[in-house]
Amino acid sequence: MMLDQLAATMPRSSHGYDEYKFREEFLPPDLVIVIADMESFINRINPEEQYSRDLGFLSTPCIPRSRLCMWIREYGVAGIARVYMHRPYLLNEDFVIYFAYTGRVDILQFLHDKGMYLSTFAMVAAAARGHLDVVMFLCDVSYWHELARVRASYRGHVDIVEYLETYEYMHNLSNEFTCVLQPI
């Protein structure tokens, strides 16, 4: 009986967070519209059609409503921390890609520190927009993708292309030395 009541109070799309206990008291009034906008953004995305990784697909990722974008710009990490405290399942890959696309390395750092999966496609979105600091952060935490260099070169971001070529060279070099140093 108790489990049925608990299941009825959980959101329909919990994105794998069912086993965690959330703070289920009422949302603060200033977060109600923000949470509603975030839920509508997540629910309207079709992953199969949006995240095609073909080279011909060079359009921008889906952008949330403008009032949500303004809220994120204004409140930044503090606002995202409040959303995380009440509804962590909302901060999924769609928002990670949006944060990388807009160059919000501070929010990506916060999410990474919380143990959330970032995304290799976030690297591609950041490289295409020319956000070197985001690209460097994502490389540091091992979310590198070879398509990022292609998209950065297509958009003319030479600094990102140079950084990614150096990173790829060092990454490949370290893998070769790791193979040599393995015990026989």
TrEMBL record:
Under SUPFAM superfamilies, the record lists: Ankyrin repeat
Task: Name the InterPro entries for this protein.
Answer: Ankyrin_rpt-contain_sf (IPR036770)
Q: What is this protein called?
A: Uncharacterized protein
Which organism is the protein's source? Aphanomyces astaci
